[in-house]
Design a protein that fits this description.
mainly alpha; Serine Threonine Protein Phosphatase 5, Tetratricopeptide repeat; 30 helices; about 575 residues; Arc Repressor Mutant, subunit A
Length: about 575
């Protein structure tokens, strides 16, 4: 049976014809037919084309490790037959796959160097732009956005000179991504839009171009907080996804898409994407898997599943992608000094005036206020960040900076200044469509208004509580309910009640309170710090609406005894 469905005799199928049909199947996205044809071609003759084609098919099928093995064998085959052009193309693909799919930076740089040497040694001018594109992606991965911009522009110029449409669109995507990372959001977003339009509009010769431009766009939108643009391009790519499979095959891209869904309030979909990213990254380097784990841990924190979040990032303390969530966990444990140290170190690495800095700075304010040690230059840095957000069109940066300034104003007792900052942050988060941040800002605004506008504060807090409940944001809902109770307002949770509100560790603390143990004794029993115990006790009292240790002990004896009596 040949691959057009006709029975053939004993005559062997012509290898070149078979490879041609395999390539045609690959180009139209018929992965099963392409795989079968390349495999049969390999049985007849181990050619570089058959190895390279099978590697490409396996990549689309999500079999990244196997894909890399075949591409490496293809490279060796091309070198043996003295075909530097095809060898360079294989090296370029390997460079990008090791970087984006496996997070193996040493292998990525090795293949980049090999591709560059082949281009120079054999004067392969038409491929110089692809090497520049690889350099752009490597530079951005190393947080060197300025170099990424330079290399992407060089790749784009080469593409225009050669009329290479795939390279042109990939270079536009890389350039747009670099500009967004540098804070030039509007300028970068326009280039990303152009790259997506050209890719999905059928200008490309290879389907991988759609993948590369899509990933650049999703990652950039996630970093910039431009969730509306991300959702719109995902919808525009629906037909491509249905026909060829998801273009978000890179684990890091899928993790960022999960972040977009998380920020947009689609938490169930976000969880599915993040779990898919973890599955794709199973054979990847720890850093790549760590990014997906950190984002899933952030989702778990928002859901109030603190212990799960701790388990997810248990081995990620030195991973840059996990800095925010690891610091947040230290803050939750009542260790603001440790949290501040982690945040300051990461800010020193990425700089104070970039997109990633906005969330880090806001958490740093929270930690600094809690430990009672706010750096003298912090307010000035945040004001510059807010202005940068406004100037660059990065609303997420501006919103987080405004809210951070509001937190500082609260600490300084400046109620009027606080309200102004919180109102501006609330408006920005509304425009961005970020429901969790909207409700968090609303609750902060309510606490500020409580003294002078009690009715308004109560209304805002009730709206925040309802929003948290709808999202499933357990810890935030607890905080809103506790605030309302402090105003004398009944605030029943629609989510878990009573002991169901507590984490496993908080329940352990409650049981020890029932035994009459002091905080130092509880700390010794649980092998944690006294500050951590103090934090857990505060959370237990807040969640259960209790006024002190005596009430907590009585509640524990009553409720735990009732549970033991249940059949």
């Amino acid at each position: 049976m040949n691959y057009d469905g006709r029975v053939e005799g004993a005559a062997e199928v012509d290898t070149m014809a078979l490879l041609r049909r395999a390539q045609e199947a690959l180009q139209r996205g018929d992965w099963s037919a392409a795989k079968e044809r390349f495999e049969v071609a390999l049985e007849q003759e181990e050619s570089g084309e058959a190895l390279f084609g099978l590697g490409a098919v396996l990549w689309w099928l999500g079999e990244t490790e196997a894909s890399v093995r075949y591409q490496e064998r293809a490279y060796a085959a091309f070198r043996r037959r003295l075909d530097p052009t095809q060898a360079t193309l294989a090296a370029v693909d390997l460079c990008l796959t090791y970087l984006a799919s496996l997070g193996n930076h040493a292998a990525c740089r090795g293949w980049l160097a090999r591709a560059a040497r082949l281009v120079e040694d054999f004067e392969l001018a038409p491929l110089r732009g692809w090497v520049s594109l690889c350099r752009a992606h490597v530079a951005e991965d190393e947080d060197d956005a300025a170099s990424a911009e330079r290399w992407a522009r060089e790749a784009h110029q080469a593409a225009r000179e050669l009329a290479d449409r795939d390279l042109e669109l990939c270079a536009l995507g890389a350039l747009g991504s670099a500009l967004v990372t540098m804070g030039r959001v509007k300028e970068g977003a326009e280039l990303l839009d152009e790259a997506m339009a050209g890719s999905l509009g059928g200008e490309v010769d290879t389907l991988e171009t759609v993948v590369m431009t899509s990933c650049c766009t999703i990652i950039s939108c996630s970093r910039a907080g431009d969730f509306t643009r991300a959702r719109q391009w995902v919808r525009a790519a629906d037909e491509f996804n249905r026909r060829y499979g998801s273009p978000h095959l890179y684990a890091v891209c899928r993790a960022h898409y999960g972040s977009v869904l998380f920020a947009s309030g689609r938490w169930q979909d976000a969880e599915a994407e993040l779990l898919a990213a973890l599955k794709i990254a199973e054979g990847a380097e720890p850093a790549l898997r760590g990014e997906a784990l950190a984002k899933l841990a952030e989702l778990r924190l928002a859901q109030g599943r603190v212990e799960e979040a701790e388990r997810l990032v248990g081995g990620l303390s030195d991973q840059p992608a996990a800095a925010y969530v690891v610091a947040a966990l230290h803050l939750i444990r009542g260790e603001p000094a440790v949290a501040a140290s982690i945040l300051e170190r990461r800010l020193g690495e990425v700089g104070w005036e970039c997109l990633e800095a906005a969330a880090l700075v806001e958490l740093l304010v929270e930690a600094s206020v809690e430990r009672g040690n706010v750096p003298d230059d912090l307010a000035g840095r945040i004001r510059r960040l807010a202005q940068l957000g406004e100037d660059s069109g990065c609303q997420a940066m501006a919103a987080r900076a405004e809210r951070a300034l509001g937190r500082l104003a609260v600490a300084d007792g400046d109620a009027r200044g606080t309200v102004g900052h919180m109102e501006r942050a609330l408006s920005a988060f509304r425009r961005l469509g970020m429901p969790l941040e909207i409700e968090r800002t609303r609750l902060l605004l309510a606490t500020t208004l409580a003294a002078e506008a009690r009715e308004v504060a109560t209304a805002e807090a009730k709206r925040a509580l309802a929003g948290f409940e709808q999202l499933g944001a357990g810890c935030d809902a607890d905080a809103a309910a506790a605030f309302l109770r402090s105003l004398g307002v009944k605030a029943a949770r629609t989510g878990p009640k009573g002991l169901g509100l507590l984490t496993k560790r908080e329940r352990e603390v409650l049981e020890l309170l029932a035994e009459g143990l002091s905080n130092p004794q509880i700390a010794e029993r649980l092998v944690v710090s006294r500050k951590t115990v103090e934090h857990h006790v505060r959370r237990v009292l807040s969640k259960l609406g209790l006024r002190g240790r005596a009430e907590a002990a009585a509640y524990a004896v009553r409720e735990l005894g009732r549970q033991r009596d249940l059949p």
